[in-house]
Amino acid sequence: MVKEKKCSLGEVHTVTFQVGQKYKGKKEIKDKVNKLATETRRNLGFKKNDKTRLKVVCKGNVPNVNASETLRSKDSDYWYVKTLLYKHTCVQTRKLRACTTKYISTEILDMVESNPTVPLRSIPDQVQKRLQVGVSIHKVQRAKATTTKQVTGDYTKQYMVLKDYLMELQETNVDTTVKLEVVNEPNNARETRQFKRVYICLGALDKGFKAGLRDILGLDVVFMKGPFPGQVLTAVGLDSNNGIYPLAYAIVETENMSSWKWFLECLRYDLELYSNSNFTFMSDRQKGLLPAIAQLYPQAKHRFCLRHIYEKMRKNGKQKSRAGSDILLNNLCEVFNIKLIHGKNKPIISCLEYIRQYLMKRICNVKKVMSKAPGPLTPTSSKLLERNGEASVQYRPRWNGTAKYEVYGPWHDQHVVDMTNMSCTCKRWELNGIPCRHAIATIHEMADSGDKVGELYTYVNKLYWLQTWNEA
């Protein structure tokens, strides 16, 4: 380790030269000279540069220049510091030739790694504070582009190894579905193909979604950035705690009926859906999505209009709602898409890896929440049931002699609770699977009358049970 020495101004620098120091090559010496020039804020130049000798002098704006460093090769493999005169009488400057685009890119590497979306205009201020030199916004722009390319990888090269990445993904994740589609090439003799689409559904997420017992998926799209723009299609469900459950994702060339139909066909294979499947999809009005769903799943329910679907469910809600949710907004996809903000500007493999790593981290976080949940219901459903129970004390049920009760409320509202079908005319019990306030009031009335009603949580749909969440 080199011992720190003070320069002629009494400052201690991290970059120092000493007589007898050994270096492997000339490039290592030049990089160290440039770093020293930036650190001391002086323009150091190479007066002599050949195969055996490298002489460095200070080109300050004062004629009396006393700082010089001469380096010469002692043998064919190493370079040694032969003479050293380390004294400056010139004035420090903020305009340094050594502060090149390449040098700045190395200085901001850690900054871009920790925050790839760091605003361009904030970098010059941080560089000036760190190096105390002046840099132009154009030089910083080139430096950030160089650093970003180094951090995220080359966009074109990642397409060349995409197939290898997908094969590795399948080998290391059991039962994972991968679909790669390329542009049709009239010349079959060509060894390369142009990328078109890729679909991924991790096997663990597929099994967990089926174990979660909720037949509802939100569909949405995220626009990618970079030299090869495309769209990320996402399919997100709900878990037993009413949290998002990302299921599958794809990168496609554009958002249209063809790409959505292809994505939905891939989902059909993984979820074992048929044209007459009673499934629920939720989305905004994305281009081509509505006709694609209508073609592939004519019997499926499609939620996309808040006011329309709200009124329709209020009046015509079925007794058994397989979706097990009364959500009317596509927030589950919006939440997932927000997590992809920092991944959509990366090359394709880096983007796919960003999504996969987020899914893995999310599973770990959910498991931590599960381990602390007392049960028997998930934390969110426990709160909803408790809230309905607190509101139920304001309602008075009256038995009609069969399995039905007429429930009166404080605002002269009344509803009919059918305990045989586990339904209420307010439709909330059927829609979200959690007993409404009217049903809970009825259950309490039954218990007071001596009926065996069991514990309250047994009236909650099993998709909200902690056991179901653990299985998912």
From TrEMBL:
Pfam families: MULE, SWIM. Keywords: Metal-binding, Zinc, Zinc-finger. It comes from the Eukaryota. InterPro entries: MULE_transposase_dom, Znf_PMZ, Znf_SWIM. GO terms for molecular function: zinc ion binding. Residues 405-447 form the SWIM-type domain. SMART domains: ZnF_PMZ (SM00575). PANTHER family: MULE TRANSPOSASE DOMAIN-CONTAINING PROTEIN, POLYPROTEIN, PUTATIVE-RELATED. This is SWIM-type domain-containing protein.
